[in-house]
Amino acid sequence: MRKNILLAALLCFGGVAQAATSEPVEIPTDDKPLQAVIFRPAGAGPFPAIVALHGCDGLRLNNGQIRKPVEDWGQLLSAAGFIVLFPDSYGSRGLGNQCSVKAPAIRPDRERVADTRAARDWLQQQDFIRKDRISLLGWASGGIAALWAIRPSLEPSDDRPDFRSAAVFYPGCRRLGDTAWSTRVPTLILIGALDNWTPAKHCEDMVKNARGRSAQAVIVKYKGAHHAFDHDNAPLRQRSRMAFAPDPGGRVTVGTNADARADALKRIPQWLAR
User: Fold this and answer.
1) Which of 56, 136, 189, 238 is the most exposed place for a label (fewest CB within 10 A)?
2) CATH C-level class of 2-272
3) Whole-angstrom Cα distance, residue 231 to residue 229?
4) Distances in Å between the alpha carbon of 14 and those of 7, 80, 124, 130?
5) Which of 170, 115, 175, 177 minimizes the C-alpha distance to 141?
6) pLDDT tens for residues 89-113?
7) Every domain of the chain and the residues it spans
8) pLDDT, mean over the chain
9) What angle do CA 219, 164, 57 make, to 5 degrees?
10) Quick one: pLDDT at residue 31?
């Protein structure tokens, strides 16, 4: 079932269903190196690239294996012709899952924005990258980091091309909206109408209030979808003690929505390829 959906999505935008091999890389920073995983298309390039930001679960499982949603999206987007670079914001700092941490040491608006900047800088030094075609993609807390990183006040001061566009899945938009968010690049937000961890209303209000002082910002709200709707074959389930959830006990519902997932598999590559 998963292979059929991925193949259908690839055929819709001209891709080839060819498995990519992921490999670890190190990104230099002012502190210790930032660990990352890169997915490469076949060929020599140069290729457009995506800096992809994991959610609060982290990039890897406790056994070191790359999480399945990361692998799925890395495979899909590399088969569509993108270099996909996933910085490991938590593992690089000796941290694991942060979903229940209410006072995280690694903040989306600070350390993870710095990781995003370091990833862009590293990609633009590689001869297999199209330096003017680097975009941002993020999930949940990684989506929050992406939305902070594309604010006009954080535009790079160097003379190299900025991020071309951004797309994010189910970010928490309340605080961003409270700080009068806007974006300097075209931005797509995908979120479930039934998301009870990062409610869609906060993102809708944020986008509405940014009109007239922002680059293009588009929000797609999927009817009947919950948080993590894009995960493959993940039955709906409840998680508890999740930090920043509206429910006092931190109870949230997560799981696949087939229609929303299928649309996202087509929409994300199309948006980032523009």
Assistant:
1) 238
2) alpha beta
3) 6
4) 10, 7, 26, 19
5) 170
6) 999 999 999 999 999 899 999 999 9
7) 2-272
8) 92
9) 60
10) 84
